[in-house]
From TrEMBL:
Coiled coil: none annotated. It comes from Basidiobolus meristosporus CBS 931.73. It holds the Pfam family IQ. PROSITE patterns: IQ (PS50096). This is Uncharacterized protein.
């Protein structure tokens, strides 16, 4: 190959690449201008239509108003349900506090009864048996022990619930602040 032909081919390649780039650039600009013009035309036509016919504007405003009213009603319902839930939670907390207070007084009373009850001497505990049948069992003592164990477990449970509620209410106060 001749040097002139190689240079001519290289120049032609450069020109072809450059022309292709420039054409793509002009086509992109044309497409952007066309979409911008279409957008401007649609906005202008909508504006002219609304100005020419005020009833359309009234309908648009009515539609917006209805949407806002629906949103307000939905939010009002949510607030009411949350208020009901909060009232129920407060009632539950009050009931738990009352139960805990009652259980504390019962436990104190049981402890006081246990402390006040006269301690029997071993001779008075062992009464001679007159019958040959099975020994009599003092059921009330077992019932009191079971009641005491139950009340103790209930107090522990209520303490845990109160701590959880206190943590929950503290967390709610932090998020609402």
């Amino acid at each position: 190959m001749d040097i002139d032909t190689e240079q001519d081919l290289a120049a032609a390649t450069i020109q072809r690449v450059w022309r292709g780039r420039m054409v793509r650039k002009r086509v992109g600009e044309y497409q952007r201008m066309r979409s911008a013009a279409t957008r401007i035309q649609s906005l202008w036509r909508g504006y002219r239509l609304r100005e020419a016919n005020p009833r359309i504007m009234v309908k648009i405003l009515q539609k917006r108003s209805k949407e806002q009213q629906k949103c307000i009603h939905r939010l009002t319902r949510e607030v009411k349900t949350l208020q009901i839930q909060m009232d129920e939670e407060i009632m539950i907390q009050k009931e738990h506090a009352d139960s805990l207070s009652y259980l504390h007084t019962e436990v104190r009373a049981l402890k006081a009864e246990k402390a006040i009850a006269p301690k029997k001497s071993p001779t008075t505990l062992r009464k001679p048996r007159l019958s040959t049948g099975p020994p009599a069992v003092d059921v009330s003592k077992f019932v009191l022990q079971e009641d005491f164990a139950y009340l103790k477990a209930e107090i522990e449970y209520l303490h845990q619930r109160l701590e959880e509620m206190a943590l929950d209410s503290y967390a709610h106060e932090d998020t609402s602040s």
